[in-house]
Here is the input.
Amino acid sequence: MKILITGGAGFIGSHVVRLFVNKYPNYQIYNLDILTYAGNLQNLKDIEDKGNYTFLRGDITDKAYLEHMFADYKFDAIIHLAAESHVDRSISGPMAFVQTNVIGTVNLLEACRCAWGGDYYGKLFYHVSTDEVYGSLGEEGLFTESTAYDPRSPYSASKAASDHFVRAWFHTYGLPVKLSNCSNNYGPNHFPEKLIPLAIHSIKSGKPVPVYGKGENVRDWLYVEDHARAIDVIFHRGRVGDTYNVGGVNEWRNIDLIELLCDVMDERLGRENGTSRKLITFVKDRAGHDARYAIDSSKLMQGLGWEPSVTFEQGLRKTVDWYLQNEQWLENVTSGAYQQYYSEQYSTR
Ligand code: NAD
Ligand code: TYD
Here is the structure.
């Protein structure tokens, strides 16, 4: 089987590529990525020489390029992760999200439809999406697969649109598709613009740890390797045409999470307990900040037997240790353009 994984140099994509390359030596894995600021081939150093792995640098917004790729490589399946993924960037520059997340996804759907020519036997389009498409919860309740879409940010609106297009290609053209909507991921190789790696970076360097608003917003956190395992299970055993929610049953208020992270960092850095908490700084809230995400994954857990393999305390310690042992990675990604992003994003808060 020839599988095209898009966005494989990014955070989640790199864990999915590694899992598939190592676990399925008989599959040919093609990683198509344009290498934006979030894409980094260093994430895949350990598998780049494997015989069943090929990197293709390309842009999913380029329709003609995709048609050539599909004609040349004759992919059997696609796992689509390439996206613009950061809510704050979608607020300051929404058009890139429309281009990549909406137009890019439609280009890929069309490339599959044209290349497969209606012969869909053994073919699959797997679309990786987010729980943010469901909007914002109050104090009670969970997102299920039948929760009505209610996206609030340019990011979640662009992902919601892409989900709708994927389902439209299933219903209209019979394209075999699967979708999953996952909660917030954390773990190694996470770009330090998102909450957990940004806080680790700040705590390590003794800089303020910015918490938006009162820190009362709630997210449901899943260790990234568990998301990659869920994608493997759904890819192989999920029902065509179906959607699966993926989550960690692990809700945290941002402030509680950051306090725990400060304590773990103190422990790992040999600092006196309480030192890092002093860095916590409440800053201006994000516009349209979704209050709470929480996901019901019982369809995936009971139907396909998946469950998270690590607790949050274990996953957070593994994550902190990875960042402390990979200082060069952090230094590389926080040099250059990152500095400008950081000062623009946080100087006015
Ligand atoms: P990321 O930003 O770390 O990586 C995205 C990757 O896509 C990068 O390698 C980037 O270079 C690539 N890319 C961007 N534009 C491209 C283009 N035009 N052509 C080709 N490649 C392009 O994102 P992530 O956090 O790994 O998220 C991956 C997917 O999972 C996204 O679709 C996201 O919506 C979804 N998701 C993320 C989370 C999360 O917590 N991070 C949760 C649920 C779902
Ligand atoms: P983030 O990691 O950007 O993921 P998402 O917005 O997709 O959930 O943010 C997680 C939560 O942390 C969210 O409620 C916003 C908040 N946050 C901060 O408080 N400070 C920060 O510097 C960042 C980046 C996020």
Remarks:
- The chain has two domains: 2-186+223-246, 195-218+251-345.
- Residues 2-186+223-246 form a domain with the Rossmann fold fold (CATH 3.40.50.720).
- The longest strand covers residues 124-130.
- The chain is about 45% helix and 15% strand.
